[in-house]
Amino acid sequence: MTKTDEIEDSSAPLIEHLAELRTRLIHCVVAFLVGMIICFTVATPLFNFLTNPLCSVLAERGQDCGLIFISPQEGFFVAIKVSLLGGFILAFPYIGMQMWRFVAPGLYKSEKNAFLPFMLASPFMFLLGASFAFYVVTPLAYDFFLGFQQFGAEGEAVTEGATAAPLSVVFQGSAQEYLNLTIKFIVAFGLCFQLPVLLTLMGKAGLVTAEGLGSVRKYAVVAILVLAALVTPPDVITQIILFVVVYGLYEVSIFLVARVEKKREEQLRADGYYDDEEEADEEIVAEEDGR
Question: What is the pLDDT of residue 36?
Answer without folding.
Answer: 93
